Amino acid sequence: MTDLSALARHSNAWPFAEARSLWDERLKGEVPAKGYVLFQTGYGPSGLPHIGTFGEVVRTTMVRRAFEALNPGVKTRLFTFSDDMDGLRKVPDNVPNKELIAPHLGKPLTSIPDPFGTHESFGHHNNARLRAFLDSFGFEYEFKSATAAYQAGIFDKALLRVLEKYDEVIDVILPTLGPERRATYSPFLPLDPKTGIVLQVPIIARDLAAGTVTYKDENGADITTPVTGGHCKLQWKCDWAMRWYALGVDYEMSGKDLIDSVKLSSRICRILGGVPPTNLTYELFLDQEGQKISKSKGNGLSVEDWLKYAPPESLALYMFQKPKTAKRLFFDVIPKTVDEYLDFLAKFPAETDEAKLNNPVWHIHNGKPQQDTLSLSFGMLLNLASACEAKEPAVVWHYISRAVKGATPESAPLLDRLVRYAVAYYQDFVVPAKKYRKASEAELPAFIELRDALKDFTGEPTPENLQTLAFEIGKHHAGVYPSLRDWFQGLYQVLLGQDQGPRMGSFIALYGVKESIALLDRAIAGEDLAA
Q1: Rounded distance between C-alpha atoms, residue 311 and residue 321, angstroms
Q2: What is the dotted CATH code of the domain comprising 4-165+234-282?
Q3: Mean pLDDT taken over the chain
Q4: What pLDDT is attached to residue 501?
Q5: Dihedral pair phi/psi, residue 190, rounded to 5°
Q6: Using the 8-state DSSP alphabet, how is residue 348 labeled?
Q7: DSSP state of 408
Q8: Are strands 254-255 and 232-234 parallel, antiparallel or unpaired?
Q9: What angle do CA 460, 413, 337 make, to 5 degrees?
Q10: What local confidence, expressed as pLDDT, does residue 1 receive?
């Protein structure tokens, strides 16, 4: 029997490297006094959820599962924490009914009406969106709301500790602020008892014994309020440190834009008497223009966008790959990522136990990826959908079931999902971008030779045999097509209306020799294949 823990000790996959660092360096090989190892992810629900936010949960879960493989028997938990008590600073660009939100700026997100009309507040709506995504992956997690935690008194002891260490905390934060903000800064933000707005006001007095702070309201009156019970919240950098201290967080990753904040919050955590968690800094996702993805702007892909065109497993792969490298995240990456996932999945069964731990699908499926009985590349399915102008999955399945004996949606559930995704992607992205051209007079002899060769073909119509046939014909016309790449690109442009495509032999085998001949006949006759 394979010793998984021993193999994990030597795996090169980054989740195992993170797990080893957590166990060896932070925990010193000992289970924490609380009895479990706590992983945490944070979420700021001021805008609609986006993939970058969820990538943090995906990646943290991968580290958690790697940690469990490395240390069997050690209990772990994952808190997904929503900072929904933060005051909303501006109305997001990408929400409906903006007029509902505008009068409530400055209030906690959980005290602002839901512009979508589906939940009790805007914060609750966005929290539900987050949970829906996590549930679609089958994640094991515990959702935590800052509003609920503050109001239930979960942070009361830690808040009193911040009050006790107030001056030391201030000394850490003030040097990072400008002169104007420095004059009014306090780590405690009282909630206005009249308006519910999260106030950023100077604290003029503190009473540790009573657990209160005092500030002046807009009329100049002294207002004294408890720091506990949800009457105050903390500025976010101090809040982050307080949460690490209060909950005993052992591992939390964060984006490159928060490097300085991690350092500052770690110092505050130590002042409170805690130990900062092990941290992985990941690079940020960029949109098609190379700009940072923003929740409020809504640029880049949403969760729903990706899941409309590809399976969740492919999104998990995108998150797994090179977390410390900035990557552009837009619709064009979907087909390539799906095919990479299928390649890793196909390789997994034959790999050694050591190699399996380095295969992304081990981390996507917690070591137990399920194989489908039949697999075709996503790129091939897109080109098949293009050739037959598919508007529904049944059209594509007509060709698949004819080419592969016994293939049905029931016998190949993953392939059936991919067919549905491919048709949706084809309709929304391929059809608008199709740009057919007619074969030139110089090209026609090559197209005619390919058509006639298919008519005369008597061998087994396998992808390999048909690819060899197309390959040889391309070499016959080197005067028109200087390279075989030019030859195949010509076929794609004329027959499929695009610059790139599948291996032609695989396409002909799947689409059908007879159907391919008819397609070539239309091209040779100069018909408009876009019609």
Answers
A1: 16
A2: 3.40.50.620
A3: 91
A4: 79
A5: -70, 150
A6: G
A7: -
A8: unpaired
A9: 85
A10: 36
With a cut of 60, say whether residue 181 has pLDDT above it.
yes
Q: Kindly indicate the confidence band of residue 402, based on its pLDDT and cuts at 50, 70 and 90.
A: confident
The string over 376-403, giving b where at least 16 C-beta atoms fall within 10 Å of a residue's C-beta and e elsewhere, is: bbbbbbbbbbbbbebeebeebbebbbeb
Cα–Cα dist 231/189, whole Å: 9
Give the span between the Cα atoms of 269 and 274, in whole angstroms. Answer: 5
Provide the pLDDT for residue 136. 74
- 142-145/76-82 β-pairing: parallel
What are the boundaries of each domain within the chain? 4-165+234-282, 378-433, 444-524
Could you give phi then psi for residue 14, rounded to 5 degrees?
-60, -35
Provide the CA 203 distance to its chain's centre, in angstroms. Answer: 40
Q: Which residue has the tokens 């000790």?
A: 9
| pLDDT at residue 375 tops 90 | no
Strands (DSSP E) contained in 173-332 are: 188-190, 205-207, 212-216, 222-226, 232-234, 254-255, 281-282, 285-286, 327-328
Report percent pLDDT > 70 for the chain.
96
Query: What's the residue count for the chain?
Result: 531
pLDDT tens-place string over residues 87-111? 999 998 878 999 999 999 999 999 9
Q: Distance between CA 398 and CA 415 in Å, rounded?
A: 13
- Main-chain phi, psi angles of 492, to 5 degrees: -60, -45
Do residues 39 and 142 touch, judged by C-beta distance below 8 A?
Answer: no
Task: Answer yes or no: pTM beyond 0.85.
Answer: yes
205-207 vs 281-282, strand pairing mode: unpaired
Token pair, residue 360, equals 């992304």
Best CA proximity match to 478, nearest among 513, 445, 525, 526? 445
HEC states along 477-519?
Answer: CCCCCCCHHHHHHHHHHHHHCCCCCCCHHHHHHHHCHHHHHHH
d(CA 53, CA 130): 9
Mean pLDDT of 419-448: 93
Whether 327 and 286 have beta carbons less than 8 Å apart is answered as yes
**Second-level CATH architecture of 444-524:** Orthogonal Bundle (1.10)
CB 230 within 8 A of CB 242: no
403 contacts 512 by C-beta, under 8 angstroms: yes
With beta carbons less than 8 A apart as the criterion, state whether 492 and 499 touch. Answer: yes
Are the C-beta atoms of 237 and 256 separated by less than 8 Å? no
Using CA atoms, how far apart are residues 360 and 19, in angstroms rounded to an integer?
A: 16
- Between the CA of residue 5 and those of 16, 60, 73, what are the distances in Å? 10, 19, 11
Distance CA 134, CA 61 (A): 11
The string over 15-53, giving b where at least 16 C-beta atoms fall within 10 Å of a residue's C-beta and e elsewhere, is bbebbbbbbeebbeeeeeeeeebbbbbbbbbbbbbbbbb
